[in-house]
Amino acid sequence: ADYNSGGLVGIAGYSGDNNMNISNCYVVGGTIRQMTGSTSNNFGGLIGYFNSSATDNSRIISKCFVRDVNIIAVGTEIGGLVGDIWDGRGVTISNCYTSNCTISGMENVGGLIGKSAGNSSGGNATIYHCYAASTVTRTSGDAATFGGLTGYSATVPVITDCYYLSTWSPQGLANNSYGSPMTEPTMRNGGTLRGTLDASQIGTWFDDNSSTWTNDWLHNYGYPVLGFEPIADPYIIRNGETVTIANAADYAARPTNITIQYGGSLINNTTSPFDNVKVERNLLNEQYVFLGSAFGNITAGYYLGEDGSQTYANVAHNIPVAMLRFDTLTNMWANNTDPANPSYNQLGYNSIMERSHGYLAYVLDPGYPTLVRPQGEVIAHSMTGTLFNDANATVTMVNNGPIFTYEADHPGQTNNALWYPLSNPYPASLWANVFIAQNLLQLSTSSVYVLEANQTWSAIDNSAIYIGKAFFVTGRNGVSQRTHTFSFDKSQIQSTAKSSNVRQNNSITITSTANNESKEAYIKINEDASNGFDFYDAYKMLGMNSMICEPYFVVDSSTLAINSISVLPYECPMNISSKATNNVTLSFSNIPEDVEVILIDGEQEIAVSNGDTYETIVSEGQNTERFRVRLNKLSNGLANVTTHDISLWVANDALNINGESLKSVIIYNALGQVVYSQKISGSSFKTLLDLPAGAYTAKASSKTSAKNLKFVINK
What we know:
The chain is mostly beta strands and 715 residues long. Helices cover 3% and strands 42% of the residues.
């Protein structure tokens, strides 16, 4: 639209008719967008332009609301409910609201009203018992007429018991609004989705308007709703929303039908069950999705919702889906690269999907092997059942396979680890950092491994694992401990367990970009880590996207996506896995001011800074021994990085030492006898240990410090 546009009415009252009543009307969802490049005016979620001049209070807007609407304009007079009230004499607006709307414009923009009383010689509107739980943004310019409730009023309006969110402006604009600010938790009564607002919180809304307003929590994000509104059926818990059932009263007030979207959370702190809940988990055409059950132990066919006779279960519209399990006898998904081949470990319809286990779902295009739909197209999917709600649960897995290898087309890529496929069993986001902390004795690294939509694997340590999402962990002690018991409990899903993901803020990031696809590798400076492989590192898992060139580090024969170190200078190999010859751009970010990073490509050494890029061509394969990364500590830096002087570790029967100006190393046996002594120099040293079984202590010295390491030789 160009101007005078509203979700319900573009222009109201233009003819001068004094008797007009707009009541019990609403607009839910959609976008009102200014289609031309001009700075046209008057856009509202309900009414664009409201013209008055009546003197008998006969122009009424009551019991109306606008929810989930985007109003995008570059002009002026933009409001969540009404864009422009021209001469507010005779205008009364009562018991109206906007919620979860985004309202943008250049000037005179408000969460409820953009501009009121355009005719300054006239009176102004009377507004009472209204609120705006929406956000307002400025698209351009430096105008100051913006507000959470009203953007601009030529004369002071009569406003009683009207409220707007104190966080109405994500841009931090100055508030030009009338009405009163209120925090979101207060407006939603403590942040729950009950939305109970009594007289002490919002004037007399519930005293003299008990039939108008209700505290029904079935919709509207927990904010107050109008009594005439249609009951949401089902109630949808959207991505990013959390509903907490704190007690029996909350449980008794629960809606009959609930849908949990992917990324939504339902935390049930009672022991009463939630039955017939629909959980959405979209699949992707011709791509893998790593998933699990939020309903306890179920069959693959029940998860995919079909009648039960097919070899691999189907979703709606007869779209075939291969449901795959991870084989802990081979530590691989399959023996070939054809998802339709029966040698894959497919689950039949009656095969059990065990609670807390992870499975791969692969949608086979109906025209397989010729694509009918685009690869990656979303295949809508959901299932209904009784949600898992145990206070705690354990899962024991035995891995009798060999050390993990990636795939047949990734020869030689091994990690000294056994892998275990788990999944979040709860109908709420599980926080990886809390799960890791409660399972430290079972894990070899401080990360879990998730499959991204671009078909690559990422190591995470403090992000949310959504409902129905699966993840890998690596077991502690490698092949010497093949049985692990992993623990889940409700503390892992509580919102208070959330921790901000700071990995990309404190890790040197190397990004490889090819074919418009990117993947990162990280070097994290951590004073608790060694310079060798340890718990603070994260293994590299190569993905299934043939377009992506994936960088990773090689440390103590292990391939790493995250390499945590403590001592500078430091240097390690970096490989780039590519399915074909590709043009690659390497970019660098998050380099501390007192660290120098040098990329080594063959005989060439390139010093890089934040924002620098390096373009090259990589060959098909791993590009082994071509690239290296070297880190030096700058003496004239600002000391942003805390590191040790010396790092010692034992890996693969070798003693490794990193440090600055190294001088000597001595190894003592349990009796205190010297069994090895060597003068050393430079910044790194490595020697194979040809020692009898027993306990030993290594002491490394530099010009400025010394450090001891106790270790055991088992033969």
